[in-house]
Amino acid sequence: xxxxxxxxxxxxxxxxxxxxxxxxxxxxxxxxxxxxxxxxxxxxxxxxxxxxxxxxxxxxxxxxxxxxxxxxxxxxxxxxxxxxxxxxxxxxxxxxxxxxxxxxxxxxxxxxxxxxxxxxxxxxxxxxxxxxxxxxxxxxxxxxxxxxxxxxxxxxxxxxxxxxxxxxxxxxxxxxxx
Length: 178
Description:
It is built from four helices and five strands, in the order H-E-E-E-E-E-H-H-H.
């Protein structure tokens, strides 16, 4: 009996350690209109080569549950936007407030597309193949998000075109309603 207790204790310790390691690797900041990124949030190591001053790793995650009621699928879903500190980095010697604002907007743009996904999920009539249908919506939104992020970087020249950066800041601020 003592041996079984020890095995259970070891199993619990293993699961706790594994969960703690995974949680540390997956550190994330949930998007909110009140929270503005600071350089302290960028914890990743910058590459030793390249011309990029900073990188924001952010993205959309979702989960859902569904039940079939009277032949129709009822869906409860959650879509969230996260910033990933361990995958985001900057080079302190060349970064400034303008570049931080540029990086914040990448995070804000991800939230804009999370909202688009929420609207699309809410407007969709799902079949019993809901898992594939939700995944297809997610993949399409992510493709649109990536294209939009590229357009943003091109038009602002990665924040170097200050007038364009200000125009994008205003447009995204308006789109998010704050």
